[in-house]
């Protein structure tokens, strides 16, 4: 009796519950790598003989595998015999063509493996005593052809991913490189896929097993265990979660210690956006984003929300505030969400709430597109109202002119926008510090990075991994920017103290913006000057630009202010103030009151402490692996110079592998229990279930789009194939009740539309379509006359095909018959109400 093939030899998955077993298997894996490395090149002339002895099953198996690969056939483990104590006393390895397959079912399968078993008699039998394997019976004859030499690397039992390759695959996966590209890289490094030792499918299976292992025991539970472990390593790590009555995760927030440190330095302005869904549970992703001293994004934390209600936002903002030491931001940017606005008023009462101008522009295109797309309206009025009005009076007068010229005084959307003018117009926020931000696109751009790296089916654990990798990348970029800002940039304006001072204190990115302002002082000139005994008042004008700016300057304390409010909003002096300071011969540096520390090279000095440093060393195993990889690359570089250096390298590497294997075999497994206790300590005590996987009707996993954007991206619909059994005319009564349901045609197209009708007959087959009874039962009551086939009402099908006049008479003829078969209330099914209720429009 033949045993079913046990498949390829794989290393077990890493799980915390089997830590002791894992250590044992890892040592076996080292033995495996050693025996495979030593014997694979030596087996072509080797033959097994009765009486041969091997120290372990592992050695016997790999010796035989190396032998059969050299011959050109595969092997699988077969029967074993045990004594009364359960100890194995006999073991048999057979050719992979041994025995015959037995079909378990006559039904046709979607995929069937090619049949290779042909009753091959070849096998080898071992007698086992105290782990020692002795060959007692051996048959080498085969009844099939051997595999050609150029295909032997594909034999299943010989395919194996080494620990080194596994480490490379895992590291590439962390960097966002897919399995196919990683396999191509390894194949190129090995001089071809034939030298790699495994195939692409093995690579993909390994990566999938690693991903599955991440969420073993529950996605959310593993994520909380990870956070709990991070908190044990660094007490400054913070996370909080909410669960529903069933114990399922609903809301989650987390941030590491360096994010807290970044918030201390740059938390005056926060951008929060919730327009992306980047996981398989359809949870809303909401990163808290700020701007660092290099004018680049920095992450303060991230959240998952199950809904966008005021209760969820209040919980999130309270948790965020608590995690940041109850330090509220000065300004927060969000989209036009009423629930979010209510939560901000509740939790951040002293924070300035600004609306994202990008979202306002998108909503304007949706609600007043007939006006917004006209340059004479958008440029002259709408853009001016948003960006160019300098005072409330100017804003009101511009709005009145817009109403008079375009007749917009009765537009409800514009009226609601006017009520929110304090949150989006420059006329009402010029003195609010915003870092120069006008929209939440900084948050959206960061979120888009996660969107590219984490697919819509990503688990939470995988998404957090991508988040952490992106966080590392952003911090590495900041370090590079710090390095680039060490020196002073080249100055084209020589011998100017203010400019030299700015170059010495500001980072390169901020100095560039300051420099642009400084160059504009030549376009300004002082038209008048007054002095009240304490403060000078200058009036500055520009020849090519209408308007004037009033600057007040105190020569005693060097305080200066300009009505353009550039310093108040962005944090560096404007061209008008710089013109006055530059004209004063006693001033050669920027007054200290007008240099914000957050824009300087030393923005983080004075905040750093030992607790702020994240423990970035990582697991000791990973550190050791990285260190050895660096040494190994150096050995490979030196050893690949010629044949002699390669011989020296191989000799010493083989000796090193043998020494390490011997050491691992001699070390007893005595710390398994203590490791289990350590792992238990790193587990979160609270048990949390995963959210229900769902996707809302019509909901995209990308940024939430306005209806106008969706219309532009509509493509021609493809009609799936479905056999037509019988045509039955439709009922106008059915059409009446389903007229509104036609809006959901895109959701039911796959179920209702036949596609195996050839092109010339499409127009003739449109008035009635078959609907499978299994689907119809959910929506309509079944009659005896309609059991075999159901039709799709033409009102719904209008979204896919035009009607032909030839079929109108056909419908009218059978119309009365259908009405007689159905009662007047037969089609008022609750499922229709549910579907119609699910339709929702975008908020203005």
From TrEMBL:
Pfam families: FAR1, MULE, SWIM. InterPro entries: FAR1_DNA_bnd_dom, MULE_transposase_dom, Znf_SWIM. Residues 538-585 form the SWIM-type domain. It comes from the Eukaryota. Residues 697-716, 822-844 are annotated as: Disordered. GO terms for molecular function: zinc ion binding. Keywords: Metal-binding, Zinc, Zinc-finger. This is SWIM-type domain-containing protein.
